[in-house]
Structure formats: structure tokens, C-alpha cells
Request: fold
Amino acid sequence: MSYPDENRPTGPSRETSRIPIIPLWGQLIVPLQGDITDAQAAQLCSDVLRDIQRSGARGMVVDISGLWLVDSHLCAVLARLANAARLMGTRTVLSGMGADVALTLQSMGIQLEGVETALGLEEGLAMLGVQVTGARTAEAERAAAQQLADEMLGLTTPAPMKTSA
Reply:
């Protein structure tokens, strides 16, 4: 019976792990999470530009809502990526920037020239022309959740199912 060597890495190292690039409806979604190393940022640029060339993506949303830290180097990388993507015909939207990150970047004088921003991923996709049809508003979602909870607790009777003729 063999035992794993405790000193040997069991998976990809943080330095070499790839950031996912998700193709969706002619767009690319790039969710950034945790702490992005310089090596990952460099790899991300080449991977994204390769995927733009392969897919012909018309737009890209880079979502930074999951980042722990956004420093000047990462901002420069994202700005270069957006500019290179624009040269290839792909519009870039940066989504999910928190107030603390925005204030820090502004106080450091960091400019994201030519990069559009959105509060969240949905807004970023909407800016690129992606429209979700049949979606409920937040208020309708809350009402439906409350109705379901009431039904499960026996406080109301289930609403009749709609049937198509």
C-alpha cells in the first residue's frame, strides 16, 4: 500500500492554477476570486485573448466582486487586457467593484482608461446587450418565496397551477 507524500503537491499550485473563462451567449465572463498572483494575471491575459480569437466574443465581463485585494499592478493588467480586447473587437465591462476598492484606486490616482464599469454581473451583461426575458423582479421573487413558505407551513392553500390551452 502506498501513502501520499506529504511534501508533494496534490493539485495545481496557486501560482499556476487557471482562472475560468466562461463563454455565454457570445460573451465571455471572467470571474476573479481570492488573491490573483502576478503569474495568474499574466496567464489570464493570454488565455482571454486566445479565447476571444477562437470564439469571436463580442463582449466580456470581468467580475471582480470576489477579489480580496485589487492593487495597482492588477489594475494595470486589467486595463491592458481591456485595451487589447478592444483592438480585437471585444467590448470589456468591469463589474463588482466595491466602494473600498473604488476609493483606494481613486486616491492612488489609478485610471482605468477605456474600461466600462457596472455594479454587478447582471448589469455588466445588460451593458453588453444580454437581455434576460421572463425574469422576475426582486419584489416578485420575494413574494413568490413568501407564498411558498406560507404554503409549506400550511398558512395558505397552494395557488392553482396555470395550464395552457
The radius of gyration is 21 Å. The first strand starts at residue 22 and ends at 24. Residues 38-55 form the longest helix (18 residues). Residues 22-131 form a domain with the Transcription Regulator spoIIAA fold (CATH 3.30.750.24).
